[in-house]
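Q: I'm writing a short explainer about Permease of the drug/metabolite transporter (DMT) superfamily for a general audience and would like to include a description of its predicted shape. Could you first generate the structure from this sequence?
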Amino acid sequence: MNRASKSFSAYEFLYIVGIIAISFSSIFIKWSSAEPSVIGMYRLYLTILIMLPLAWKYKQELLFHTFRQLLLLFASGVMLALHFLLWMSSLNYTTVASSTIFLALEPVLVMLGSYLIFKTKANKIMLIGMGIAMVGTVIIGSSDLALSKEALYGDVLSILGTIAVAIHMLIGKQLRSTTSAFAYNFLVFAIAATTLAVYNLIQGYPFTGYSKNEWGIFLLLAIVPTLFGHYLFNWLLKYMNATAVSMSVLGEPVIASLLAWALLKEALTGWQLGAGMVILFGVWLFMRHGKE
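A: Of course. Here's the predicted structure. Afterward I'll give you a sentence or two in plain language.
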């Protein structure tokens, strides 16, 4: 019993590490002057480079797939690329607090998608929680519109980016049942990075000529929020309840907003704080009474 308790505590510790790690993502992106699609591309390519030494061990899973699996992997990678492009772009128009708070809607969208695709039922309290979260979203949107149309545009980009990552998660839920965390992440990261590379090529964005500071930011994004955040959460899915892992997104807006206040000197308005609490309460209610 003590051994199990210690083991669970270790997973809890890693869970907290993951939440803190992903919260740094918006800070690093704000520090960079590169295009969001370039940031996302190098963030993922550098992550793959770090993972490469272990690729030989998983060569069978990396090379052999059914046609259906390949289609799902491609769709998952494209949705992840779209998420990075939209959400990272939102940070150019709105604050970290407003942009990250919409990410808290991810578990709601994932469970809504599960209902539509897998026919997973939602009870009344879950629907009430979803309604409360949506009210908070409207409050932030209306308050940001009062500030500027740019801020509202950033909110819309963040919401669309959250929808994209929810679709990515739903596809991943199917693929992870037959694929290891390493193989899934490696392939999806590669597809997402290449999708962004094609986008950058079409847009004519430079692939080289970035300063050492920019390359340092790209590397920090690869190590901290990607490996110690997203990859860690996918690994924890094997040892922790999937619903509990997905609730990690609730901690990101809070920590990211505090980091932005401390490191970027971004002010937190009363509307953002109040509406943020409304969204978090709605999502918590939804997740608390949801079932696997």
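A: For your explainer, you could say: DSSP finds 14 helices and no strands in the chain.
Q: Perfect, that's easy to follow.
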